[in-house]
Amino acid sequence: xxxxxxxxxxxxxxxxxxxxxxxxxxxxxxxxxxxxxxxxxxxxxxxxxxxxxxxxxxxxxxxxxxxxxxxxxxxxxxxxxxxxxxxxxxxxxxxxxxxxxxxxxxxxxxxxxxxxxxxxxxxxxxxxxxxxxxxxxxxxxxxxxxxxxxxxxxxxxxxxxxxxxxxxxxxxxxxxxxxxxxxxxxxxxxxxxxxxxxxxxxxxxxxxxxxxxxxxxxxxxxxxxxxxxxxxxxxxxxxxxxxxxxxxxxxxxxxxxxxxxxxxxxxxxxxxxxxxxxxxxxxxxxxxxxxxxxxxxxxxxxxxxxxxxxxxxxxxxxxxxxxxxxxxxxxxxxxxxxxxxxxx
Length: 344
Known about the structure:
It is a single chain. This protein has 2 domains: about 15-175, no CATH class; about 175-330, no CATH class. Helix content is about 60%, strand content about 0%. By secondary structure, it is mostly helical.
């Protein structure tokens, strides 16, 4: 009987198991993405996955490290999926390959591989693509029912791999600016927020389709919290700061600043809160540090969205705060037991 009262310790998940659960948590958002925008995103995810695994193997070979164990840890696949979900699904195949290869080779392996990279690899890949190919990064597929023309899956493949559209179909007929980009453009024309949000591309909370994709990533994020893959500190601090900051501006001038829920369900806020900022390698190790890190990322995200040159700010907010992680960790570490010194 005493066996029933023994202290039981659960064996911690391996890296591959943790990464697999994170990949699994992305599936609801991906499924809704396919439902509202078509299957082109699956092509980008597949291309990025193949490129990530091939680049990972090549870099491990060059570094004279064992290949199989690192390929099986699923970290390269997670980078690939996050990058693919951050760029337009109709992006040419070579863009997906270039961004993914750069993310794995430069921002991961040149720093020593998994566990040593100071920057989130997927966001580095995104930053390289949006700075190098800004026009291509604006070609987002129009949600079902809103575009002048809807491409079949075969037509999407033809554009991704060959740059060819059906006869008499222009790219503008099948793509559009993101809800955040559209909002910023029309605000610069001094239009009222309510007038802008009456446009067909907006739904109840944010953009048609994209707000539902955000719900999918929120669902996946709650699964990660319930599974204790991530803690609550980063998602709550990030979304809370985004809510508070956008709420202050909205209350001060509702004609030019949208509601906080718009910012929650637009762009990459949900995937950023639960999947990007929570990367254990590039985020702080202390609970207080996580709160500071995420709160500052939420503030930077809003400032870029409201006043910056890019429609969304999660990638640059992540990278800027990645730089600060060593300092945050140093100043939030609890004192060593028996040592009165509290600061380094």
